[in-house]
Amino acid sequence: MLLVLLFMLLLLWIWHSSWQRLAEEQELQAQQQLLIYRTALEAEIARFENIPRVLQSHPVLLATLAEPKDPDRVMQANLLLERIGRETGAETLYLMDAHGFTLASGNWNTPTSFIGQNYRYRPYFKDALQGSFGEFYGVGATTGVPGYFFGLPLGADSRPSGVLAVKISLLALEHSWLPSRDLLMVVDPDQIVALASRPELKFKTLIPLAPEARQRLAATRQYVPMRLEPLELGIKGQQRQWQGQDYLVSELPLPRLDWRLQLWWPSAPLSTNASLITATSGVSLAALLLLLLYWRQRRRYIRAQLKAKGELEHKVMERTSALAASNYQLERQVQERIQAEARLRSMQHELIQSNRLAALGQMAASVAHEVNQPLTALKNQSANTLMLAQRGMYPQVEESLQTMGRLVDRMARLTSQLKMFAATRRTTAGRARLQEALDNVLSWLQPKLDEQDITLCHQLDPTLYLPMELHALEQVLANLLVNSLDALADMAGGHIGLEASPVRLTLWDNGPGIDTALLDKVTEPFYSTKQLGQGLGLGLAIVRDLVEASDARLVIRQHLGGGAEFIIGWTDGQDKD
């Protein structure tokens, strides 16, 4: 009886250990799947969020806000928004005034047109009207179709005159989840299922909603007319029961809107596999025990008959058992490796498709950031040229036109580089005169220096050359000077210093500087210490790429006199600190 009890306890331990090990393996696979789903969801949203930024200063939209009762301007805005929505794949784009009334919409000629509707109660409208970039997910108040909304202010930063909104649909992404046997869902902070792989789960709650939560949701009409009923769930330890089946839940946070991505996978196969392993182990142990007993009896008998023959048979049995166990282990390892390789190929394919979508959004943001500076300079130069022409100062007019020509050439060089982004990263090493590059940059940044009363201090050798292409050196100087101008905004007595040698370029300012904890992050793409809407966080990332492509190194540190210091070193001129 004692042996039977010990045997049962051993089988119980084997079953529990097997279940735990299988659960850990399944949890690891679930986390990998969640990473793929999260990447696809974020890429789907990210490829649309730059659409309102590109249209923020469009003259047709600004003219419509200025004259909302002009039918011709409204029709031009309708056609523009309709065309942009058709080309980008967005569900619709629409323009609202400062009171929330829709003036123009891409679906102006449909039965569910947004024109004349008021959406001032939506959070994305309120955020945009306060000067920030608004994001929101909910059921459409006019169409009844759920979607993801973006809102961006138009007009003056301090007092926007209107809001440009974009609505995108995530239904296609949800449909791609349907073949999964697991339950995949996106849960918002109120425990409401916003997206799901099963239609019966969508707009259900994991816990009953509190009265204050229902009042808050009713104020924004986020899920109207959905009833938001709680799911009939059962709790069994770490497992959840739904529709008669037990699930274990894996979760991954989503930064947007404080969402959480959950994957519910059945736990019944774990128990089945653990029981199979336990049964196999029990049978094997019992068989081994019987074999040992049989061998012991036979050994006693054979020892009495022929000792040598018994020893030989014993060795044969041991070797046969070892070969069988090794063969079984090899077959099992081969099968597991084949299955793992198949899963890896499937996940790699999905990840490649997701990264391609994310790359489109990043390239559009980079182009908008790079082209914005020469466009602003062209606008200032055109105004100066008109003023000089009116005063009859034709030599200065000719010089200004030449400056505008150089700006156009610079934009052409920027756009021509887009063809190279699809290939590999090319070198920017070359030879450029620093004074020429600085003069070109100051031709469009000098008005801003004068406006902020900032002094640029330098004593450069006019014949000094640096080992970098001219247009790349202009981009580096322009981005570093613009960063310093932004840092010195609203400061009196601001100044920027510039020093150079054949293998070293140093620029600093007396601004507030950069926090030491952020020095390693400021060169990451889309990371910015500025207020929301004042920058994309691409300037220093572009500087770093251009510098490294010329076989140089960029060092950022606090300046001894206060402010930030940027050092670019080539070969022996690299910073040693």
UniProtKB/TrEMBL annotation:
Entry EC no(s): 2.7.13.3
Membrane topology value: Multi-pass membrane protein
Entry protein name: histidine kinase
Recorded catalytic activity of this chain's protein: ATP + protein L-histidine = ADP + protein N-phospho-L-histidine
Origin superkingdom: Bacteria
Domain Histidine kinase: 366-568
Main localization category: membrane
Entry keywords, A to Z: ATP-binding, Cell membrane, Kinase, Membrane, Nucleotide-binding, Phosphoprotein, Transferase, Transmembrane, Transmembrane helix, Two-component regulatory system
Enzyme class: transferase
Organism this protein belongs to: Zobellella aerophila
